[in-house]
Amino acid sequence: MVKQLIFHLGDTKTGSTSIQSVLRAEGYELAGKTIFYPTIGKNLNHNTASQTLYKGAVFDQRANRFSALEQKLSKNDADYGIVSAEFFQYADPAELKKTIEQYMSNHAANVRLIAYVRPHAEKFLSSFSTQMRVGARQTTPLALFEKYTELDTLDYAPRFKKWRDVFGDAFTLRLFSREHLHRQDVLQDFFQFVTGADKTKITWTPYNNPSLKVGQIALLRYLIEPLAGTEKQGNKRHLRGELSRILARNIEESKVGADTPRVTMSRKLMARFVKRYEADAVAMDEAFFTGSPMTKALQNAKTKLAAPPQSLRVEDYFSEAELRSFALMSNVLCTMADADPVKMTSLARALRLELNRQK
């Protein structure tokens, strides 16, 4: 069996897709060490396992999914086995520990865990871009701020302190900020944590899932909104999410709208945001870091990530001729969706998974 088990816990928006893509493709060269990354179907990650820790609908699958991972890890003699799922962000660490002891007992005594945390404002704006990428409707930075405030989504300190309380020194938290990463790169940082090597040769270039610019978000909303259907049309909602991810990637790769501004917060919202999270930034610095990097990042956001309010009207970024072309494409998608939304959703998901495995 693998000699040591590593849990990569995310968070979301901290380079997890890049790490998982390189692990699945075995796109690295190690000196004298070996890694085993158990795969589940075509998925890049182990989110289906992590979801059994917090989603009631799949609680009954916990034993099957973690036991399947344990079986694969026990049959391999690599130096390190890695389980990676950014959705561990939503799990109770005590539940994960109990699950490891119950269903992964061969490795329970030799486990290490790593999570990355992104400064508050950067995480928020990246999350807003992701909401658009996955087909969310009519979301604005203000609406997302109010939602996150209600759910305590960006209150990091209580959550990460709980991971440390449960797992002790086996848990490591790294700051997802270029100047704080080993060799200023999350891949190098992750492999340094796993193997201790100062540098790992990366031989496979992953898709890095960049944040959309504001004009690109406006375009994506314009293309996807006709697919919304009604709230009762679940098939169309799922299709909208799958197609949105594919369209977002094509928009990025084609550079359409790449010359528009990056997403920022209005100065008024930024003032509320800083006030809301300054205590959490201080608590994170006191508990996990030196030099107050979380506090400094939050204060710096007031000048780096704040600007006048931004429009999400597609007409403000593209010409009439461009909009006619975009409307034509959207009409074609709608016609295909109306014909067979279930089949189209399945095909779109298969295409998305295939794109994720490509460079």
Short description:
The protein is an alpha/beta fold and 359 residues long. It has helices spanning 16-25, 47-50, 62-74, 93-103, 120-133, 141-151, 156-167, 186-195, 214-224, 234-254, 267-288, 293-304, 320-339, 341-357, and strands at residues 4-8, 28-29, 35-36, 80-84, 111-117, 171-175, 201-202, 265-266, 306-307.
Protein described:
This protein has 359 residues and is of the alpha/beta class. The chain has 3 domains: 4-118 and 176-202, Rossmann fold (3-Layer(aba) Sandwich); 214-262 and 310-357, no CATH class; 265-307, no CATH class. It has 14 helices and 9 strands. It has helices spanning 16-25, 47-50, 62-74, 93-103, 120-133, 141-151, 156-167, 186-195, 214-224, 234-254, 267-288, 293-304, 320-339, 341-357; strands at residues 4-8, 28-29, 35-36, 80-84, 111-117, 171-175, 201-202, 265-266, 306-307. It is globular, with a radius of gyration of 21 Å. The chain starts with a strand and ends with a helix.
